[in-house]
UniProtKB/TrEMBL annotation, chain A:
<dbReference type="GO" id="GO:0006396">
    <property type="term" value="P:RNA processing"/>
</dbReference>
<dbReference type="Pfam" id="PF10447">
    <property type="entry name" value="EXOSC1"/>
</dbReference>
<dbReference type="GO" id="GO:0005730">
    <property type="term" value="C:nucleolus"/>
</dbReference>
<dbReference type="InterPro" id="IPR012340">
    <property type="entry name" value="NA-bd_OB-fold"/>
</dbReference>
<dbReference type="GO" id="GO:0000176">
    <property type="term" value="C:nuclear exosome (RNase complex)"/>
</dbReference>
<dbReference type="GO" id="GO:0003723">
    <property type="term" value="F:RNA binding"/>
</dbReference>
<dbReference type="Pfam" id="PF14382">
    <property type="entry name" value="ECR1_N"/>
</dbReference>
Automatic annotation (TrEMBL), chain B:
<dbReference type="InterPro" id="IPR036345">
    <property type="entry name" value="ExoRNase_PH_dom2_sf"/>
</dbReference>
<protein>
    <submittedName>
        <fullName>Ski6</fullName>
    </submittedName>
</protein>
<dbReference type="GO" id="GO:0071051">
    <property type="term" value="P:poly(A)-dependent snoRNA 3'-end processing"/>
</dbReference>
<dbReference type="InterPro" id="IPR015847">
    <property type="entry name" value="ExoRNase_PH_dom2"/>
</dbReference>
<dbReference type="GO" id="GO:0003723">
    <property type="term" value="F:RNA binding"/>
</dbReference>
<dbReference type="InterPro" id="IPR050080">
    <property type="entry name" value="RNase_PH"/>
</dbReference>
<feature type="domain" description="Exoribonuclease phosphorolytic">
    <location>
        <begin position="22"/>
        <end position="150"/>
    </location>
</feature>
Automatic annotation (TrEMBL), chain C:
<comment type="similarity">
    <text>Belongs to the RNase PH family.</text>
</comment>
<dbReference type="GO" id="GO:0000467">
    <property type="term" value="P:exonucleolytic trimming to generate mature 3'-end of 5.8S rRNA from tricistronic rRNA transcript (SSU-rRNA, 5.8S rRNA, LSU-rRNA)"/>
</dbReference>
<dbReference type="GO" id="GO:0035925">
    <property type="term" value="F:mRNA 3'-UTR AU-rich region binding"/>
</dbReference>
<keyword id="KW-0963">Cytoplasm</keyword>
<dbReference type="InterPro" id="IPR050590">
    <property type="entry name" value="Exosome_comp_Rrp42_subfam"/>
</dbReference>
<dbReference type="GO" id="GO:0034473">
    <property type="term" value="P:U1 snRNA 3'-end processing"/>
</dbReference>
<dbReference type="GO" id="GO:0034475">
    <property type="term" value="P:U4 snRNA 3'-end processing"/>
</dbReference>
Amino acid sequence: METDTTDQSKDDILICLPGERLCRVEDNVVLGEGTYEQGGYIYASKSGIVSIVESEEKYQMVSVNKPGFHLTIPATGDVVTARVLVTTPKFAKCAIFCVRNVLLESSYRGLLRKEDVRETEKDRVDIYKSFKPGDIILARVINQMEQSFMLSTAESELGVVIAYASDARKNRIPMVPIGWGEMQCPQTTIKEPRKVAKVLPESTIKSEP
Amino acid sequence: MAGRMELLSEQGLRLDGRRPHELRHIKCKLGVFEQPDGSAYMEQGNTKVLAAVYGPHQAKSKKAEGNDLVINCQYSQATFSTAERKNRPRGDRKSLEFKMYLQQALSAAIKSELYPRSQIDVYVEVLQADGANYAVSLNAATLALIDAGICLNEFVVACTASLSKSNIPLTDISHIEEVSGGPKLTIAALPTAEKIAFMEMSERFHIDHLETVIETAMAGCREIRDILERAVKEHLIHMGSAADWARVG
Amino acid sequence: MAYVALSEAEKTFILHGVEEDFRCDGRSRRDYRPMELETGLVSNASGSARLRLANTDILVGVKTEIDVPNPLTPEFGKLEFFVDCSANATPEFEGRGGSDLAQELILSLQKAYESSLAFDYRTLCLIPGQQCWKLYIDILILECGGNLHDAVSLAAKAALYNTKLPRVTATLLDAGVTDLIISDNPYDCTRVGIDAVPLLVTVCKIGDYCLVDPSAEEEVCSTVSMVVAVSMRNNTGRCGGYKMLRPFITKFLSTAYLSGTHMTGGGSMHRETMLNCIQLGLSIGEQLNSLLVKMLKAEEQRVGPKRPKTVGFLK
């Protein structure tokens, strides 16, 4: 290893620039964010601080971080927060505004097909009974199609997290989930069908593949 | 080539007193503005350029073709940037040409596979034009991209070169040398990998000299790269110590 | 204009701040944000200035040209404004995206400078009816942080102050043809008088109150605003007999005149409110003008023999 900054004290910070060679590719070295591999070496692709994190399985992850800076694009497998914009019989169009725990500056288009709403009884799903425009949902990015990201809520932790009753627009009191398929307005006690997410602490969702 | 002015004096000095291999004075700064995701200001002699980068964000539908990253550039020149007033800042043939060349050179440097279906906007504003406008614009754009934290293969830098009548290659051409009719070669390079991302040449000279002129321009690129690297490092140390090396992510 | 999204709660917060006369950034309703000014930084222009008003960044270059005066006004020189909204400010300005905003700014400047009492076009005349100076005032908007009108007019005035016209002497040749000789000496130049040059003050109405120098967020909250062009005029000519007292009198007799005003934004306002707005604009414009003149004088001192290098964008 050419670089060694396992203990990062303030005086011992390794700064790198795009195109700078960091180290050789070895079996126990994993490429992290802001790096790329070429001709048997790992190079930096951003300017920032080099960090080497050692994990339990003797792997070392080399990555480059820019101080006070983070830029995100939804990637396959990420859990995103999106707002439902339009519902049609076949799919729901969404606007992704948050990836993992990072708020995006501008939203990305997302598409949730009828088949990806839930795990079981896929053919009996009705989009209109699962989502309404304006709902805030948690979903996982499963694919990247042209122009938009394909989303899925086929996990019990994914689905609608915040929804308002369709008639009580003025009061804006969020409905309370009363089951995996229904939500209720606390004021009018009207029940509405939704694909409800079982909201868990974030760490449990993240650990899944 | 008869009739054009001699670019080198008998003492071997150029019109502005530089030696043939000398670059003009370079000053640059990252993070000039707050609104764009990345911005940079660059001065090379009397050529002054501001660059701003927005993105990556979702590609506008009309520009998106398939899964690729769209690099959207705009080159504009302030109406007061030249000695003769320009009537409009952009939209003329020259700026459209430069815009295309910027796109070419930048797409060689940006790691586009990391940004599918996204768009990066690069806007370049020339405040004062005194030769090598394209080269300085590209260098400023590179700095702005680095400021925006966009992943690059490495620095992409550009430099110009010319050939004096006595066949001595000259680096970093100023406006006065440009108009006095010598050949002008612009190279955008990835200096560490020794790759050329873009090259443009005008006027004629013998093919035998091409090699030396390209080598001169490449040497200029390497020198500019070193200067830019120093500036980025200084900026990082400045920003990092202000943020107390806080790591986000 | 760069789009700023505000929620209802944020708007209410700003509104309450304005009511309390304590705005989000701690200013009162009559305060301006901090300003930075630098002149003479574009060497290809005859005069230039860069003004940074908080996040609003304006660069102005003045170019000169010799032209033939308009036959209707043979003794007047010419002035032309051009505004370019750089895409650096916001991606919306890409291509022709900023042309509406640019046109609006050009029009309000033209209106403000229209009167020959606001800008003395005679100083730009070389030979009446034959030759005059034409000044191109090219304004480049590099970053928008609200209150463009004020910032643009301040920068334009500063650039005019910085403009140096080479001294021109006319010689009469045969057959009544005049020939102009332009001085080669860069120090042999004339300046443009800026005493009366107008400034634009935007008075923004938020809720029931009027305020000056709105930030981008405040502009979103406002329904209507008045752009008031304020021109200062020296009345010292009238008090010829009191030469001793002139320095003191000048102070009181230079008064603010209105040289044009128009409303922007979609809303409407009451007639009395409008007059109040204009009054407020005039008094603020007067203060702003004296502040600018002071800044320019200080800048001039700096540009003297002990002149440090121009900083420009490198600061």
